[in-house]
Design a protein that fits this description.
Elements: H1 2-16, H2 25-55, H3 64-82, H4 91-112, H5 124-138, H6 141-158
Helix pairs in contact: 2-3, 2-6, 3-4, 4-6
């Protein structure tokens, strides 16, 4: 009787562990890569929108929906990662990703949001100063992505898979 109970508990726990981002280390890795790729694309969209506004409408408040979309995505991914079960020793990888997401959220609030208060009367010098600040702060992102790559490679090695790199 105890043996059947133990097997039942193990099966339940086993099935419960699949309620995470990925079911295998490779799937987990791919999910983490998708997060960084998505944030890069969304950042590019924000920059493109800024360029359009500077060159055209001067309606800087139109940046808010783009920023809020990025922040919503960050919040969703943060919640998923926070509530996710460990996948073959993924806790360090998860933590590095959470730290990266915290940086990105802060970046949105501290660096991107101020652009929304600009008006048609905002001078080119003020815009240039803010863009220079944005570039300086965005450069810090490399430290986070470098750390992600280090932990990602450690995780891959520990789980016996190779990370494919794109040929340029």
């Amino acid at each position: 009787m105890q043996k059947k109970f133990l097997i039942g508990v193990l099966l339940i726990l086993g099935f419960g562990s699949f309620k995470s981002f990925g079911q295998t280390p490779v799937q987990f890795n791919n999910q983490m890569s998708a997060i960084t790729d998505s944030l890069m694309k969304q950042g590019t969209s924000w920059g493109k929108k800024l360029g359009e506004i500077v060159q055209g409408s001067k309606q800087y408040q139109d940046l808010a929906p783009v920023r809020l979309s990025v922040q919503n995505y960050i919040d969703q991914q943060t919640l998923k990662l926070t509530n996710m079960a460990d996948i073959s020793g993924s806790s360090k990888f998860q933590q590095v990703m959470l730290t990266y997401l915290q940086f990105e959220k802060s970046f949105c609030e501290q660096v991107l949001k101020p652009f929304e208060s600009f008006t048609a009367a905002t001078t080119n010098e003020e815009i240039k100063t803010s863009v220079d600040h944005l570039i300086k702060e965005a450069a810090k992102e490399k430290d986070y992505t470098d750390q992600i790559h280090i932990v990602q490679n450690e995780y891959a090695k520990a789980n016996n898979y190779v990370i494919e790199t794109k040929k340029e």
